[in-house]
Amino acid sequence: MKHPLILKFLTGREEQVNLLRPFHPRDKQLLVELLRCPEEISVPLEELCYIMVLDKSGWQLPTKEGELVEHIETTTGDSFDLRVPAQNYKSGFYAFPIDQKASYRNIFFTLHGIRQRREERPLSDILEEHGWLQENAIDEVLDEQEKLRTRKVGEILAEKSSVPTEKIEELAQQTESVSAGSKVRIGDLLIQAGLISREEVEEALEAQSKGKKKRVGELLIEKGLITEEQLLMALSAKFRMPVVDLQTIIPSPEALDALTHNMVMQLKVLPLSLENRHLTVATSDPTDPTIGDNLRFFTNLSVDFVAAPASEIQEAIEKHYGRSDDGEEQIADLIGELSSAQIDVEEESDDMIDSSVSETDSQIITLVNQVLLDGFRKGASDIHFEPGLGNQPLQIRYRIDGICAVAHQIANGYKRAMISRIKIIAKLDIAERRKPQSGKIIMRSDRRKIEFRVETTPTAGGQEDAVLRILSSSQPLNIGEMGFTESNRQKFTEMLEKPYGIILCVGPTGSGKTTTLHSALSHINTPERKIWTAEDPVEITQPGLRQVQVNPKIGFTFDQALRSFLRADPDVIMIGEMRDPETAKIAIEASLTGHLVFSTLHTNSATETVVRLIEMGLDPYNFANALLGVLAQRLARRLCKQCCKAYQPLPAELEQLQYYYGRSNYEAHGLPKDPKQITLYRAEGCSACNKTGYRGRIAVHELLPATEDIRRAIKENILLEDLRDLALENGMHTLMMDGIGKILAGHTDLEQILRVCM
Ligand SMILES: [Zn+2]
Prior knowledge:
With 758 residues, this protein is α+β, with helices and mostly antiparallel strands. The protein has five domains: 3-120, no CATH class; 134-222, no CATH class; 228-324, GMP Synthetase, Chain A, domain 3 (2-Layer Sandwich); 338-471, Beta-Lactamase, CATH 3.30.450.90; 479-636 and 698-734, Rossmann fold (3-Layer(aba) Sandwich). The strands form six sheets. It has a seven-stranded antiparallel β-sheet with strand order 4-3-2-1-5-9-8, with no helix packed on it. Strands 22-21-23-24-20-25-28 form a seven-stranded mixed β-sheet, sandwiched between helices. Strands 16-15-14-19-18-17 form a six-stranded antiparallel β-sheet, covered by helices on one side. α11 links the parallel β12 and β13. It is globular. Bound molecules: zinc ion. Zinc ion is lined by residues 640, 642-643, 685-686, 688-689, 693.
């Protein structure tokens, strides 16, 4: 007998399966067989959002009077209206369809998969049931709410300012007659007419938007019809949260550690307990599901709520958290600045009723700011926002050390608001959703400036992706910190100290060429030298350098920048990239006329670079005279120092290293041949490295100094193979040799070296 189920995972994935062993809510695992490829697997309950039971054979929907209908929203973005009988399981609850026609028998929801559940009864019914509210008292309040929601700015101005009502009505009629196509506002007209100040209009707009957001509960309290405590009791009944007395609960230290002071202050919550990655939190606002979204996002824990009065939560925060530390303060400053001064937020239009999540929602603003900061602090080079199709969540991936990994998932309901928010702060057109747009975001704190280059791209299903490149995030390293072998470091420093000539740094995108050139520049960056750089984009800034951002879109290209530098009295010039023969030619000429020139190319190896430039049409004689050296570079992932495990290689593994190094060179360079003399390290994974086993990167080099031999060979148009042999004779180590040296030194492993050096 097969029991077909649909499993919905927390990640949003859906899988149709057959249940192989009866399930009970206290089970940690489900034993199932996949429908698409029958195979027995066990699925941990903690990975699931809900289990939908499809088998309806011989089953009658139980009809029970008094069972409440609930609206249930999951963290995966699904929502249901279902009947939920009383039950008491720790892991979740069963819910049943309202009528027999549903395509499923019932659904088991896990607690950690719930975003919000609420009883479909109006709040006033609950208040009346407890005898806290007189029947019909609610109507008056609902009328008032309606009035506040439809109130025009003109009405508020008429109440508050000294302008006669007739005058405002007259102007209001004018606005109505012209506002069909344009955006004339009554406030603007009053200001123009000199009747009112801009501040007064802004106050009125604020009063209007506050009025629109007023909830029934707030109005009931304002009118003295119920107490705050009664409201909280009713809300927690509606939203299925138990009410607790914080004076009798001591939060666990683990729970307090899970949330920062800044976070509890912003969200007005108190964490109470943390068990099995499950955090219980007290809130005074059961109605706001974005609090849970934020907490899940920040902590990557499953979160479940209890309710407590706002005053008790505030008191407990002060008691258990005390004053915040400096680091937190700094982030709070950043966020504060970003959400007020730095960003122009579109004014809400007069007819907007605040029902759904919008990009001006303070939770969305905080969430976007936190993602940007979080990405920056984790050392990401790029942040990818990828909205899923339909009701799939928004996935956020960080590229760290060259590899993309999922960092967060945000519920479906926020997809559009988050992308819109990014577009607003990047000063893009939020109405334009069908064309790609580029812009930038600058976050400032008094210590540093973080710049993000933003690219939005329309994707399938009417969505838009946003990719943010974090600029100015890397600092130039000291030459000594760049991972050079001692011999390469010496040769490279010698080149830098030459008065003129050209130094090239080559490798594919993401191999750290720009960082290396900046380290080189910082080595010679002294007040006696004038240094010009042309970059696209300027990723690293250094005091003392004069840095120029080229912009090919408006015709300001590398070769134009270079020509301009030559008229501007340079000593040293850095050209971000030699994209064309023209730029290469001028760069060579500049280096022959007494300037030190740095540039990069997208070539694979040092020797290949030389041959390629000659093929591009450079004069071999000039080029040979100008060249100081070529540095090819790669970045390999570095083993995490906290968790990597030492081991002695098996003879076969050592064989492999010798093979890739080149057996004769391995011997000639005097490298160890007895496995017992060698200690290698293996990736393990710990919390410091996000369970990957790797943390940070190490540069792998191939440095070809332009010695007399090499110069002569270039002038003679030597073949690539022969040039390589000559370079090796001159003592050059290839990328692979340098990489294997770094394995033997315990910095990385063969897998990572093969990945970047093959
Ligand atoms: Zn580790």
